[in-house]
Amino acid sequence: MQHAAPAGEETSAPAAKKSVRRTARPRTTSARKKAESAKETNQPTLRIIPLGGMGEVGKNMTVLAYEDEMIVIDCGMIFPEGEMLGIDYVIPDTQFLMANKDKIKAFVFTHGHEDHIGATPFILKDLKKVPVYGGRLTTALIQHKLDEHGVKGVHMQTVKAGTKVKIGCFE
Questions:
Q1: pTM listed for this prediction
Q2: Model pLDDT for residues 109-131, shown as the tens digit of each residue
Q3: Please, which residues have CB within 8 angstroms of residue 135's CB and are 6 or more apart in sequence?
Q4: Whole-angstrom distance, CA of residue 108 vs CA of residue 74
Q5: By the 8 A CB rule, do 87 and 111 touch?
Q6: What angle do CA 99, 101, 105 make, to 5 degrees?
Q7: How far apart are CA 145 and CA 105, in angstroms?
């Protein structure tokens, strides 16, 4: 806080702030220690793999992987920016999904907004045998999108709120 100098006294310019650069010491968190311990004892660990939606609004897609089984949570898209001429939709990169398609047990949807279901017809056309789980409205919206894009043969499973579902090793 600056104070006014009494009348007749000179004031000096405030001292320039010094820039301080701190180097972080490497820290080992308890989570990292547990993960390292699990690797050493060959215990299976749950991996959370975001494929979209990180640091952006849209393209929400996250993979939960445990041993040799995976579930995909949401399958969203975003609309292109103004400078993306000729692009209709922007979807998450699916290379990881395609490389692991035999491990994917289900797609689970949290709700029916475009940023969570918009990429579904583009991704499920190559993964038709993977079942889809979601609430009644969400699965109806997804089915409409699949029909609109001519994607057939996807098994839809409607889940009531509060119901537990077992999908492979996931519950």
A1: 0.74
A2: 999 999 999 999 999 999 989 99
A3: 109, 111, 112, 158, 159, 160, 161
A4: 6
A5: no
A6: 145
A7: 21
